Amino acid sequence: MKPKTIVVVGASRGIGREMVKLFASEPNAKVLALSRNSDRMRKAFSEFKNVECHVFDLTTEGVREKCEAIFSTVEKIDILINNAGYLVNKPFEELTREDLEHCYSVNVLSVIETVQAVLRNMHDGHIVNVSSIGGVQGSIKFPGLTAYSTSKAALCSFTELFAEEYKDSSVRMNCLALGAAQTEMLEEAFPGYVAPVSAEKMAEFIVQFALTGHKWMNGKIIPVSLSTP
Ligand SMILES: NC(=O)c1ccc[n+]([C@@H]2O[C@H](COP(=O)([O-])OP(=O)(O)OC[C@H]3O[C@@H](n4cnc5c(N)ncnc54)[C@H](OP(=O)(O)O)[C@@H]3O)[C@@H](O)[C@H]2O)c1
Description:
It contains 7 helices and 7 strands. The protein is α/β, with parallel strands linked by helices. It is globular. NADP nicotinamide-adenine-dinucleotide phosphate binds near residues 10, 14, 84, 130 and 186.
């Protein structure tokens, strides 16, 4: 692999943690790992000299400015993976304004601001947004996921809009709409449910896609799911 700088947002656990480890196992890679939990990141990535951990809450003010400050410490960024996610599983009428704001803040608003920040440092490269199959029209839906799945649908829509606005640039953006993977998020939201794919396997796919998918695709929403529909 040519030397690459990769940013993984949402890196402390689940699929994000596995992606950081895979990227970091390439000695030519430098990985910026962002999430709220510093201890978990330091523990998970202690063996890798090429991982830099940044503690960051995506629900707070000034995401764009904080990202600009972090990103300005490297010469250029080749890959940005917007992987952080927040899931609320609640009956529709029990959803609060706070639930909705938290979901949209992590799953949509902070992604848009992170992308605004990265453009200064990404001259050609690939931005991968991690959405959910539940955010894709005509796909399987689950009761209780109004806040989460509508926010993931907005992320899909953002991908198409960004790709159109930046189609003459060398920055490509795609969106992976994941099906169930065995992670802490899934275990907390659906206790006892066993996913057909592990966090490690899902991470393998996303890493490969992030490295190569932009050669063939831009503005695409790709379902990564074993379920039908
Ligand atoms: N697992 C599945 O079945 C599944 C299915 C479809 C889509 N997805 C999507 O795939 C992505 C990864 O999912 P996962 O299951 O690996 O989730 P996870 O285990 O809950 O990990 C989510 C990551 O996001 C970070 N994060 C959450 N809120 C944050 C905040 N306010 N500020 C900064 N970082 C924050 C968490 O770190 P901290 O807590 O340390 O901040 C964590 O590293 C998510 O976007 C999810 O929606 C997952």
